[in-house]
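Worked example 3 (structure in, sequence out).
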């Protein structure tokens, strides 16, 4: 997939970390190192000429530095930071009875840390979650509002499924881009307003290809008695072909979708077909407002979601940066557990007595281990049975990006240390189980010569992420942790469409067993 993305610092771990959005990353720079060297020389001079001042500064500096490092790595270690600071103050007092020297030393060290932090404490970019790059803490809209909106829609339409809806939006975006490139937007009249079609038409285009949808976020919406409206932010990449030029772009744009009360959600098998939203008849190249077959007016949102506005947020030609070191965020924070988790588990157990959380954990370990090995090989074929179509396409993009850059991101000795269940939801079509995965291992990137360009071959990196697995609501039974087709039992041999080569079952759909559908980082997950 040769499409290009927005420049972003990459914490390029399998399944998470890579970001479509901008915002530099990583560690310090040369200026910070030089400043640190100058301060070290100054302290040595103080130790020789003014030991009564330099002694407490060094003692307190060591313990404060350790505490500061621990506090920035994991929020749970802030208590340790405080304890080490107190120990340093006591040690300084014992060294020099004049406690004023210790106070001065502490103030000097704090000032030095602030200065160094201005050089090296760059902000970590928002991680790329294939379903939704959630918003910053403190923002007016959070994923909780997304849950509330979906809940209201489900009251009006019991067939509504968040999983199917996300698949529909992804398919609609790709269809709009293909139609835009082929100058066939009128065929999508039932799914977008005339104003939107006019705004995105470009007569110079001959085709739009390599469309990759990196993420989708519900940022606003209303659900009223007469209609539902959702505002969605999409981060995508694509290639535009013209008669004399080809150019790849990163896009970030806001879509507003509307449908009238009474509209019914489409089933999973119809998620990517864009025919008459009422009867399913093919649409005309110059589609009118009335379907030729059912004679219904089909461009009002009465039968399906319709795009009423598209607002461009960003459009860039910049490629992704694949090297850089950024600190984990949120790993030490408590797991966000849904208040209905135990109740939802009991309901699932009543419907499916064979289901066991421990069995799902075993499957997650299989998926995790397979993912790490496939990612390092830069070949995700082994992961095809375990990833939903949307997540697989997104991960394939990053593998292609590494290959183009001549880089390999290595996950070595990666292992799960524990799980914590977080959320379980069910709708007409799917059960969705979110669990927090805690893991550790080596994570580094090498160039074609084998030189390490980011990360470390020696220091392991502990991290945690929220993984959501989906399975058909009709499927019962224990989760499998065997590398076999969940339908026919043959050895896993899955084609790129996600189907078993022996029985042709669509394994990646979740119809037969749990598949990984969504990965969210600690600092953006809100339950």
């Amino acid at each position: 997939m040769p499409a290009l993305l927005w420049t972003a610092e990459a914490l390029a771990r399998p399944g998470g970390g890579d970001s479509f959005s901008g915002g530099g990353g990583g560690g310090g720079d040369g200026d910070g190192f030089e400043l640190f060297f100058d301060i070290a020389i100054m302290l040595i001079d103080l130790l020789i000429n003014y030991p009564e001042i330099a002694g407490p500064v060094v003692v307190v500096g060591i313990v404060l530095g350790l505490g500061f490092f621990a506090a920035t790595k994991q929020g749970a270690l802030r208590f340790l930071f405080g304890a080490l600071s107190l120990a340093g103050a006591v040690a300084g007092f014992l060294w020099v009875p004049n406690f004023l020297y210790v106070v001065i030393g502490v103030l000097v060290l704090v000032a030095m840390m602030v200065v160094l932090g201005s050089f090296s404490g760059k902000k970590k970019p928002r991680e790329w979650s294939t379903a939704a790059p959630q918003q910053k803490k403190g923002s007016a809209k959070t994923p909780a509002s997304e849950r509330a909106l979906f809940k209201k829609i489900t009251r009006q339409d019991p067939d509504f499924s968040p999983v199917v809806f996300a698949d529909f939006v992804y398919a609609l975006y790709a269809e709009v881009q293909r139609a835009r490139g082929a100058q066939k937007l009128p065929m999508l009249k039932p799914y977008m307003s005339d104003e939107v079609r006019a705004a995105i038409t470009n007569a110079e285009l001959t085709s739009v290809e390599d469309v990759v949808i990196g993420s989708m976020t519900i940022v606003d919406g209303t659900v009223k008695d007469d209609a539902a409206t959702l505002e969605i932010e999409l981060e995508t990449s694509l290639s535009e072909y013209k008669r004399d030029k080809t150019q790849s772009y990163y896009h970030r744009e806001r879509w507003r979708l509307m449908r009238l009360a009474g509209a019914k959600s489409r089933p999973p098998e119809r998620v990517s077909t864009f025919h008459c939203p009422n009867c399913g008849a093919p649409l005309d190249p110059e589609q009118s407002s009335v379907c030729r077959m059912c004679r219904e007016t089909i461009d009002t949102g009465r039968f399906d979601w319709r795009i009423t506005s598209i607002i461009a947020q960003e459009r860039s030609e910049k490629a992704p940066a694949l090297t850089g070191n950024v600190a984990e965020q949120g790993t030490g924070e408590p797991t966000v557990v849904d208040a209905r988790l135990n109740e939802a588990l009991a309901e699932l157990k009543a419907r499916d007595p064979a289901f066991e959380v421990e069995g799902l954990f075993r499957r997650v370990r299989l998926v995790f281990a397979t993912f790490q090995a496939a990612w390092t090989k830069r070949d995700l074929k082994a992961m095809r049975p375990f990833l939903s179509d949307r997540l697989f396409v997104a991960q394939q993009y990053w593998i292609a990006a590494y290959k183009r850059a001549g880089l390999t991101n290595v996950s070595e000795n990666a292992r799960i240390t524990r799980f914590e269940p977080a959320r379980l939801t069910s709708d007409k079509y799917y059960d969705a189980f979110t669990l927090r995965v805690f893991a550790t291992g080596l994570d580094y990137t090498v160039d074609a010569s084998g030189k390490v360009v980011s990360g470390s071959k020696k220091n392991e990196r502990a991290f945690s992420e929220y993984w959501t697995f989906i399975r058909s609501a009709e499927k019962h039974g224990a989760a499998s942790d065997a590398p076999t087709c969940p339908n026919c039992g043959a050895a896993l041999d899955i084609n790129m469409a996600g189907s078993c080569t022996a029985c042709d079952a669509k394994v990646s759909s979740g119809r037969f067993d749990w598949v990984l559908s969504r990965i969210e980082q600690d600092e953006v997950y809100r339950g």
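Notes: DSSP finds ten helices and eight strands in the chain. The chain has three domains: 30-120, 143-316, 341-521.
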